[in-house]
């Protein structure tokens, strides 16, 4: 938080890429890397969804950190003994310091760690999911969807840029604003963009084209957190998502699509924001609500045409070891 005004995100990411040709020194290899995420984090949740949609679970195994952290790092407190069973570390910070002993930037998720060295390769969340589509294609499941098709990339990029600026990061700019003026500017910009997105989605089932793309993944991870966290905790309270009919139906449509809602852990989401952000919520009390059952209500979006995957197929059932507990997600109840 900036006590004097507007919130600015630290965007100094490790931009090394894992590519099919290994041009950065890190070739795509099944099983060589570990995707470290927290289900609480919207940026990491993008990677969880894309990995599942593309069927990369075996090629790119996943480590799930706990929903809370201190000033040092995300921790592996969900694992036996508090250590990731593959990397053998208690804190994600250890993998960052293995890469650079003088590392002084954010210890963020998602992060991809090279298991052979224990070093973080990349935490560039925007690039990670694009590379899953383009560079990891040899390991996609049969029937995997094209989330970043060549003919639509310019439009997807344009939508993503606006959504990131005003929505994905916009909720943080409101929540972490250090002045009334900065908060009101961020709040106004956020809801102006949500209104534009409602207009766009009024007659179109998805943001770009007739199937799910990278753009839908990026918007969904903010919308699914909106009523549970951003409306109250970040003071984005002009309207709840459930009070915005088009976006609410769109979000439910995606939530009920295999690969989206089945990755969401509402308990982790709420515990992260309300416990970690003590400057905003000093008591650390986690709200009991909202009711989650309405995520399963009919959405009637199919009448707009289009299908989630077009000629592709939905992903299969979630592997038992990656399933979200039923108490944390109405799909798993």
From TrEMBL:
Any Pfam family the entry gives: GST_N_2
UniProt region (Disordered), positions on chain: 304-333
Domain GST C-terminal: 123-276
InterPro entries per record: Glutathione-S-Trfase_C-like (IPR010987), Glutathione-S-Trfase_C_sf (IPR036282), Glutathione_S-Trfase (IPR040079), Glutathione_S-Trfase_N (IPR004045), GST_Omega-like_C (IPR047047), GST_Omega/GSH (IPR016639), Thioredoxin-like_sf (IPR036249)
Gene3D superfamilies, per the entry: 1.20.1050.10, Glutaredoxin (3.40.30.10)
Protein name: Glutathione-dependent reductase
Species per Swiss-Prot/TrEMBL record: Streptomyces spongiicola
């Amino acid at each position: 938080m900036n006590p004097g005004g507007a919130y600015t995100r630290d965007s100094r990411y490790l931009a090394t890429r894992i590519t099919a040709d290994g041009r950065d020194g890190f070739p795509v290899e099944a099983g060589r890397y570990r995707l470290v995420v927290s289900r609480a984090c919207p940026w990491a949740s993008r990677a969880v969804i894309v990995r599942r949609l593309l069927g990369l679970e075996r090629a790119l195994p996943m480590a799930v950190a706990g929903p809370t952290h201190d000033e040092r790092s995300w921790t592996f407190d969900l694992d036996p003994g508090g250590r990731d069973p593959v990397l053998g570390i208690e804190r994600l910070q250890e993998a960052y310091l293995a890469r650079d002993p003088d590392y002084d930037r954010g210890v963020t998720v998602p992060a991809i760690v090279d298991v052979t060295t224990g070093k973080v390769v990349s935490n560039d969340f925007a690039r990670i999911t694009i590379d899953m589509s383009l560079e990891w294609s040899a390991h996609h499941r049969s029937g995997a969807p094209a989330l970043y098709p060549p003919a639509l990339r310019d439009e997807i990029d344009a939508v993503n840029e606006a959504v990131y600026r005003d929505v994905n990061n916009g909720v943080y700019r409101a929540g972490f604003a250090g002045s009334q003026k900065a908060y009101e500017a961020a709040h106004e910009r956020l809801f102006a963009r949500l209104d534009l997105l409602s207009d766009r989605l009024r007659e179109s089932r998805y943001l770009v084209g007739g199937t799910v793309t990278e753009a839908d993944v990026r918007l969904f991870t903010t919308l699914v957190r909106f009523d549970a966290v951003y409306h109250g905790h970040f003071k984005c309270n002009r309207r709840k998502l459930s009070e915005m009919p088009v976006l609410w139906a769109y979000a439910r449509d995606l939530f009920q699509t295999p690969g989206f809602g089945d990755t969401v852990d509402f308990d982790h989401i709420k515990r992260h924001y309300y416990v970690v952000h003590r400057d905003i919520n000093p008591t650390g009390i986690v709200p009991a609500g909202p009711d989650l059952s309405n995520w399963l209500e009919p959405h009637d979006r199919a009448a707009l045409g289009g299908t989630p995957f077009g000629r592709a197929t939905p992903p299969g059932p979630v592997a038992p070891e990656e399933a979200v507990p039923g108490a944390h997600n109405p799909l798993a109840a």
